[in-house]
Design goal:
76% helix, mainly alpha, 196 residues
Length: 196
């Protein structure tokens, strides 16, 4: 009889715990954490698309013999640095994102210098191949902005859930930590001054 009573108490205890576990939000936390990871992959994809366009852009510009070699070298080096920075999406910490962002900003800066120099070459600006690449690059910059926004939205949803009661208890038990946002680089609030 003791065995049956003990089994009954275990079943009763289990029946009482299951509703608590289902409301702890563990599965939702896992789902939202995976969404953050997937969205980070989309951010990296958008940046990779930009990096993939650059060799074609550089080759198109190289066709103009008197073009400044130093500018092209700067773009190639910045692309190399930007593509060498990789981040483990399970370890999205402020330092890793800052390092990634700094490399991407270096590439953006080099591309901006290239576009300023291109202004001095009317034949190049009229080249259809260059115009197509420039349009693709502009579209890619828009995609990057959209993917960063979506990443931040996914991060906000995840962070909000793990900070709400009672999910915050399960989050601390199961090791769900807050994710960091993709933020603007310091100084980007002031528009750059372009002088010709």
């Amino acid at each position: 009889m003791k065995i049956k009573r003990r089994q009954f108490l275990h079943l009763l205890l289990l029946a009482g715990i299951i509703p608590l576990l289902s409301s702890c939000g563990y599965n939702r936390m896992v789902s939202l954490e995976e969404t953050v990871t997937a969205q980070w992959a989309q951010v990296e994809n958008a940046y990779q698309r930009r990096a993939d366009l650059i060799p074609n852009l550089v080759n198109t510009v190289k066709g103009y013999a008197d073009f400044e070699q130093e500018t092209l070298t700067g773009v190639i080096e910045a692309r190399s640095k930007a593509t060498s920075v990789t981040i483990d999406p399970t370890n999205l910490n402020p330092a890793a994102i800052q390092q990634f962002q700094a490399a991407q900003e270096g590439l953006s800066s080099a591309l901006s210098r290239l576009m300023v120099v291109v202004e001095r070459y009317p034949d190049l600006k009229a080249n259809q191949g260059f115009l197509d690449l420039q349009a693709q690059l502009e579209g890619t910059e828009n995609r990057i902005a959209v993917e960063r926004r979506k990443f931040n939205e996914a991060t906000r949803s995840y962070n909000t859930l793990i900070r709400k009661f009672p999910a915050l208890i399960a989050a601390s038990i199961f090791g769900f930590d807050q994710k960091v946002y993709f933020e603007a680089v310091e100084g980007t609030e002031t528009p750059p001054i372009v002088e010709f």
